[in-house]
Amino acid sequence: MLTVVNHPLIKVKLALMRDENTKSKEFRENLDEIASLMCYKVFEDLETHQIDETYNTPTGVELHKEKLNNKIILAPILRAGIGMVDGVRNMIPTARIGHIGMYRDEETLEPHEYYFKLPQVENPLVVICDPMLATGGSAIAAIDAVKKRGYSNIRLMCLVGCPEGIKAVEKAYPDVHIFIAAIDERLNDKGYIMPGLGDAGDRIFGTK
């Protein structure tokens, strides 16, 4: 239940994001583009159905329109996860947006939920978005919060992770498919991914 979205365009853009000299504007733009590129893998197994509404091609052929079988809910973990939303919505404009508020205790590294709101729709696929999968604590807490509200079809979409965080999520929720653009070496003693790209939230919003 782990897919590494290994693509040359993603590697080039991620290298730009890792550079400490890359400014917030370029950081956000590359994150948007990587999120869009990752959609190919995250959603490639979804099925569609034809609806009654039709359209005509330029050659005069009438065809039925297609729709996804599942409603898509994007659930970014605040605040850094917001940075991935626009990239996904570029590919799926009809996706609904929820929010999961988590903060991490700087001493214990434990996550705490402070906000939760997801759309109520039929047969949804919930994609939890967070650029960094470090200890796995925030991801596990977010998955737990989503499941407690009755959602069962869940995927986790991240930019950069490390073996520790991936193993933690896989152990806690083996039914949740993880999609990630890069697996880095390890965590340091402060819980940051190495080599990583720093604090994604600070770099997205220019607050570092």
Mean pLDDT: 94
Bin the helical content: 25-40%
What sequence of helices (H) and strands (E) makes up the elements? EHHEEEHEEEEHEHEEEH
Give the uncertain stretches in residue-range form: none
Shape: globular
| Count of alpha/pi helices | 6
Distance between the termini: 34 Å
Note the main sheet.
8 strands, mixed
- As a percent range, the share of strand residues is 25-35%
Radius of gyration: 18 Å
Number of strands: 12
User: In terms of structural class, how would the helical and strand content be classed?
Assistant: alpha/beta
Please provide a written account of the structure.
Helix 5 (163-172) links the parallel strand 9 and strand 10. 31% of the residues lie in helices and 34% in strands. It contains six helices and twelve strands. The protein is globular. It has 208 residues and is α/β, with parallel strands linked by helices.
What attributes does this structure have?
eight-stranded mixed beta sheet; 34% strand; 12 strands; two-stranded antiparallel sheet; alpha/beta; single chain; 208 residues
